[in-house]
């Protein structure tokens, strides 16, 4: 069974012309890491928040969001709180914004578990010590305050906190963007190692394709609220099947290329006040024809590639085998 199974998720915000999430299908299996990539404003964060049953106020949400078999969109408030506290965890971009600055790290780590009522103080503290050790921090950190720790140490604390209740699903939203490159590499390695060790499913939101290539088993490429391509990360990045994926890869800076240069994808992601009748990428796509402008392409299996789908009318004829090598 998939730990996270999102099916046909549609979210409509009041006063807009197109759904902000438009028929999203996404699965993450136990022990698997799926990277959700795409330009800013495509709906990545909304998708990962929906996995916690969080949708913007006054938004209309349809479809199903199953976490460990329970639909987060229909659970009552109490059950939702319990599922959030015991089966899911989220790691955010900026650890300082997500932690109470006047509470000691020890209290921060243990209070979530103690609130569930199932853990007493001693047991919660033991669990905190085990996890601090797992993330490479000393036990003395328990008595420290957030301002006494560096950004990298604090993100390690956040990872420890996320794993306290032994969640089945970890949602990481740009968890290393606020860190320098060395610390970023350490945190990514740590996340990967712990996720394997604890067998957690992880949805990793990022706009950094190189990072996605390093951490993910599978990748889902999102554009204007839709998943336009999915598949094994290595294969998708080596040979993209959707013109948008190919354009994203071309626009990703490659310092090791013979002639490093930055390609820009012309145009912008259509705003929420623009109705879309066909493919949302059609207006920016060099391969679009009349059909792309009027008929919505459905996701279809990519021939010869396991667990891979693409939503493009012209994928087979336009994207050459071998595609744009990257990474
Ligand atoms: N609470 C909200 N109320 C209204 N609109 C929202 C809300 N949250 C997000 N949006 C809009 O939904 C769209 C998708 O936002 P989302 O944050 O999911 O994108 P993203 O792909 O994660 O972008 P980024 O990489 O910049 O974080 C954007 O147009 C955003 O302005």
Automatic annotation (TrEMBL):
Family: Belongs to the ABC transporter superfamily.
Entry protein name: ABC transporter ATP-binding protein
Top-level taxonomy: Bacteria, Bacillati, Actinomycetota, Actinomycetes, Catenulisporales
Family annotation (Pfam families): ABC_tran, oligo_HPY
Every ABC transporter domain range: 4-249
Organism annotation: Catenulispora subtropica
Keyword Nuclease among UniProt keywords: no
Subcellular localization, as worded in the UniProt entry: Cell membrane
Taxonomic superkingdom: Bacteria
Matches recorded under CDD domains: ABC_NikE_OppD_transporters
